[in-house]
Amino acid sequence: MKKLSWLIGVVALIASGAYLFVYIYRWEWHRALLVGILFLATLVGLCTALVLRRVTSMDERLRSTAGNQRPAGALERLRAAPVETQPFRWLSPESLDRTHIFIPVLLGGGFVVSGIAWLIERVAGSSARAGVEEQLATDLQGIAFPVTSLVPTDAELLAGADDCADDPSLRVLLGPAATRAVR
Amino acid sequence: MKRVIAGLAAAVLTGIGIWLLRSELMTVSIQQPEGSYTDVVLEVSIREDEAVREEMARGLISTCRLLVNADVVEDTFVTVDDGVVAFRLRPGLDEFDRRELRGCLSDTRVQHLLADVRTLETITPEGDDSSR
Known about the structure:
The complex is a heterodimer. Chain A is mostly helical. Chain A has seven helices and no strands. Among the domains of chain A are: 2-64; 146-183, no CATH class. In chain A, α1 (2-25) packs antiparallel against α2. In chain B, strands 1, 2, 3, 4 and 5 form a five-stranded antiparallel β-sheet that branches. Chain B is of the alpha+beta class. In chain B, α2 (53-68) runs antiparallel to α3. In chain B, a hairpin with a 2-residue loop joins β3 and β4 (84-90). At the A-B interface, α1 and α2 of A face α1 and α3 of B.
């Protein structure tokens, strides 16, 4: 199959090259351009195949020669070697002055600070609620509407007329609103 | 050694090819006698509607005659047979122009149109300088 592919490629290369000359000879430029593109494509394909074949053969030769020189028992040596387990290596003291611990420390610090802030907010919210409401009620009392009416009724106006204006007990009974209206 | 021989052969073939092309692709202009003309008979095949065959053929001829700097003589474009057209160019074309015109007409310049040059000859008033 490989030989057939090579044969087809070489025949296509020769034929397209020959037709390129023929079409140029006949002044048929469009056909010459098309065949020229085909010629170039075939040439690039064949050259690539040649290079790949050479690389493959070199690789196989290297594998065949170098494979015998390797000492056996690589897996056993790996298993026999001491295993170094050092988790969180970036926290080791000799690495503390390195820049690469900055990011983990920053991330961890941010997490801790966020937790503390959340805790403070919860405690403050639960403790301050009762006191704040009491203070608010006290402040609102100062600006609340008076219990008595601001405008005297007709009866109060009549009672506070000139005939009864000098009666202090009646004035106390009517309150300040009727007294102000009369004046 | 084999590679050297193959490379030499390829180089020699290429050199010969270029040498042949050099003489064939010359664009030398040879003055033609006064009153000379060139008759062309063309077989045209088309993959489109047959009704546009003549129009496409005219387009191809108009394109190609610009390359050789010759005009189609008025009313000389005739349909000789089914798919065969003829026209006359004036002034007559020299050998190099005839090659160029033949190549242009036979080329795939117009899509879906193939033209085969049956006759392409230059006729001079003396009658002894006709060439195909």
